[in-house]
Amino acid sequence: QVQLVESGGGLVQTGGSLRLSCAVSGIIMDKYRMSWFRQVPGRDRDFVAGIDWRGRFQYYTDSVQGRFTISRDNAKNLVFLQMSTLKPEDTAVYYCAATSGFGHIKTVSSYNYWGQGTQVTVSS
To answer: With bands split at pLDDT 50, 70 and 90, how would you rate the model's confidence at 55?
Structure first.
C-alpha cells in the first residue's frame, strides 16, 4: 500500500519559516519525481515545487522562488519543503505528490499518488 504522509504544517507569522516533511512508503523513491502542491478552498490545486528522481534538479512556481526549497532523501523515503519568508498568501493546504511518469511536473494529472495534506496558515 502506497502512503504519502505530510507533517510540519501549522500557524506562523508573516516572515516566519516552516519545514514540511513527506514520509513515503510502498514505492521505490528513486523511481518517482516528487512535488509539493497547495490548495485553498474554492480554487484549483497549484504546483509549488518539484524535484527530480535523484534531487539534481528543482522546479518552483514563480511566487515561491528564492523563498522555498525542496529536497529529498531517498535513503530515508522523505521529501522536504523548507519555507521561509512566509506571506499570508502562502496560506493553504499543502500536498505531497509522486509521479512515476514523464508528464509535466507542474500538472496535477501527472501524479500517481497524493498525501492527505497539511494545513499552513500565515498570519498577517
So the answer is: very high
